[in-house]
């Protein structure tokens, strides 16, 4: 029989293969033997497992306490029993509280020692029966515990090795696919000693329209390390925007030197990306540095991202210019900035509207992500129409077109914005001074109410039920901005606002502030009580009228179709009647012609019977 390797050799080999410290393996083996011993000999026994490096085995010991009266036979021994089994030393007599240790022989090589111990202390220790199957059970338990401890130690080693590499580019080879389309990648840098380390590329981090086969090379971003994952701990990403940034940093030396940097980046994986770059050196063009000679640098990144389109735009500290750069290649005619709501309205030529928006809104969406501004794209014709509508509304203030034009230039679009604006802000408008500012504010409030009443009237006459958003806009003091804040806070209906009793919660969730929230709730309740019933009645009446009109039009259409069908049938009948005499006349002519034909045939036959003169007689 081949000699089994000692435990010391096994520990050294596993330590070298797995990169785990021998101390960790020794602790795992000791814990495994202890677990098996507790299960076999009893959980109440006081046991100790200790690895013996000289013998290459784990020594198992059991301790018992000397007492006068034994209450727990598994942990205690009486003085009399100890003396009877020769455990007492006359020179050092046993006393209550002393501990006696017994080595438990469980290995097959120690069978003789185990039998000797059973003969001498079997009735005292009470483990003779349990000892018989301990070797097999200990091996199984040790195997399970050691496998788990080794797995935990490997995971801890991988975590320590890669935790500082989050956000780095890492390469590897595709090995296999697992459940849920997870891609298992064997990393190139497989740890110390050439040990294999696997990572996972989950579906959510894969780029659309990319496909891989086992053996393919792959470059990805080390996004995270999950210590609790059941499979590979290292999570890779091909969809993260940082992958784009890191690829450019690898391709552009000026970025490594710190001259050029990527200020912002936005990406829709597999389709298109945008990066904004700046330079610390005025002599270095950041866009040109990223593009490279004949586009070599950017093309290298594009190839690595499997053909993803990349727009490189210069960063500008001026938000308006930055946004105009980001929306390229579209041309921007005018920019209207709303700093309070972090919104920009970009006016583009009618012919460039689709280019500015991009396919399915991709261009404006990426530009918004890049600049962190909410962008609204409008055409010049639509902007002119909006401008005329806003001017007609603002003209209600003091009935002065010049003041309305100045208000519009300062960013005011509605009368409620004028009514709610601080005095200091209104005084910055040309044509408004201390003498007329309050009058203009009051006229704006009156005009706001007039516009609201006109909207109420139009809604009541419209043959369709208004949406919850439209209802909110009919409430006094609620404009588009307030309505959006209410909807974002979870108050998208009149009922949800009217039934809210906790005004502090309403103010916090909507972001309106306590005083404004109180006003809005009171206005909603008043609207529901005083104005909405009449609006609802008007809408129902308009719907009924519209249905009657539709039914009448349908009946008229049906009658018209029936009349047309009857006229068509009459025409067809008339044509049929006119055709009968002509058919009869044609039939008579045919009969006469037939008779003439018969007479001609008889004459021919008669002529044939007359003998020819000079014929044979």
Question: Quick gist of this model?
Answer:
The chain is of the alpha/beta class.
What does this structure look like?
The chain has 617 residues and is an alpha/beta fold. Among the domains are: 7-154, N Utilization Substance Protein A, Chain:P, domain 4 (2-Layer Sandwich), CATH 3.30.1480; 166-237, Nucleic acid-binding proteins (OB fold (Dihydrolipoamide Acetyltransferase, E2P), Beta Barrel); 462-552, no CATH class. Helices cover 52% and strands 16% of the residues. It is built from 23 helices and 15 strands. It has a five-stranded mixed β-barrel with strand order 5-6-7-9-8. Strands 1, 2, 3 and 4 form a four-stranded mixed β-sheet that branches. A three-stranded mixed β-sheet has the order 10-11-12, with helices on both faces. Strand 8 and strand 9 (234-237) form a beta hairpin. The protein is elongated, with a radius of gyration of 48 Å. The protein starts with 6 loop residues before the first helix and ends in an 8-residue tail after the last helix. The model is unreliable at 590-598 and 600-617 (pLDDT under 50).
């Amino acid at each position: 029989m081949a000699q089994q390797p000692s435990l010391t050799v096994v520990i050294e080999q596993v330590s070298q293969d797995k990169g785990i410290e021998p101390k960790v393996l020794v602790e795992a083996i000791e814990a495994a033997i202890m677990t098996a011993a507790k299960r076999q000999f009893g959980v109440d026994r006081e046991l100790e497992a200790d690895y013996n490096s000289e013998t290459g085995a784990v020594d198992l010991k059991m301790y018992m306490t000397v007492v006068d009266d034994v209450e727990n036979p598994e942990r205690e021994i009486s003085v009399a029993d100890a003396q009877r089994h020769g455990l007492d030393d006359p020179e050092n007599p046993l006393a209550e509280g002393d501990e006696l240790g017994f080595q438990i022989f469980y290995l097959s090589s120690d069978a003789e020692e185990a039998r000797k111990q059973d003969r001498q202390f079997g009735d005292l220790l009470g483990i003779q029966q349990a000892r018989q199957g301990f070797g097999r059970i200990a091996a199984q338990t040790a195997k399970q515990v050691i496998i788990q401890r080794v797995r935990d130690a490997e995971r801890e080693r991988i975590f320590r090795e890669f935790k500082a590499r989050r956000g780095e580019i890492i390469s590897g080879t595709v090995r296999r696919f697992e459940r849920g389309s997870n891609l298992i990648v064997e990393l190139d840098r497989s740890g110390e000693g050439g040990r294999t380390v696997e990572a996972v590329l989950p579906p959510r981090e894969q780029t659309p329209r990319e496909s891989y086969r086992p053996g393919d090379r792959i470059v990805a971003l080390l996004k995270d390390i999950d210590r609790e994952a059941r499979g590979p701990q290292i999570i890779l990403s091909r969809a993260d925007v940082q992958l784009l940034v890191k690829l450019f940093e690898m391709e552009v030396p000026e970025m490594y030197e710190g001259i050029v940097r990527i200020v912002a980046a936005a990406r829709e994986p597999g389709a298109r990306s945008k990066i904004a770059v700046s330079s610390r050196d005025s002599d270095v063009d950041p866009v040109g540095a990223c593009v490279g000679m004949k586009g070599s640098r950017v093309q290298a990144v594009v190839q690595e991202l499997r053909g993803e389109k990349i727009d490189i735009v210069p960063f500008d500290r001026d938000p308006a210019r930055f946004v105009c750069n980001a929306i390229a290649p579209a041309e921007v005619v005018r920019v209207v900035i709303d700093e309070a709501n972090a919104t920009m309205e970009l006016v583009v030529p009618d012919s460039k509207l689709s280019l500015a928006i991009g396919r399915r809104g991709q261009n404006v969406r990426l530009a918004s992500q890049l600049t962190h501004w909410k962008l609204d794209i409008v055409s010049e014709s639509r902007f002119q129409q909006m401008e005329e509508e806003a001017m007609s509304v603002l003209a209600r203030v003091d009935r002065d077109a010049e003041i309305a034009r100045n208000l519009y230039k300062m960013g005011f679009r509605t009368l409620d914005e004028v009514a709610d604006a601080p005095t200091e802000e209104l005084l910055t408008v040309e044509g408004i001074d201390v003498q007329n500012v309050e009058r203009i504010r009051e006229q704006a409030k009156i005009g706001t109410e007039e516009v609201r009443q006109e909207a109420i009237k139009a809604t009541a006459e419209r043959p369709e039920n208004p949406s919850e958003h439209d209802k909110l806009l009919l409430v006094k003091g609620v404009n588009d901005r307030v309505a959006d804040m209410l909807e974002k806070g979870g108050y998208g209906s009149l009922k949800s606002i009217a039934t809210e009793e906790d005004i502090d919660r309403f103010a916090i969730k909507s972001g309106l502030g306590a005083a404004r929230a109180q006003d809005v709730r009171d206005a909603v309740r008043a609207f529901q009580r005083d104005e909405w019933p009449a609006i609802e009645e008007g809408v129902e009446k308009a719907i009924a009228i519209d249905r009657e009109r539709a039914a009448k039009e349908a009946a008229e259409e049906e009658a018209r179709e029936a009349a047309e069908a009857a006229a068509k049938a009459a025409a067809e009948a008339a044509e049929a009647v006119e055709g009968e005499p002509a058919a009869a006349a044609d039939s008579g002519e045919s009969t006469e012609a037939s008779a003439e034909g018969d007479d001609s045939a008889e004459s021919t036959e008669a002529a044939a019977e007359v003998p020819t003169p000079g014929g044979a007689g």
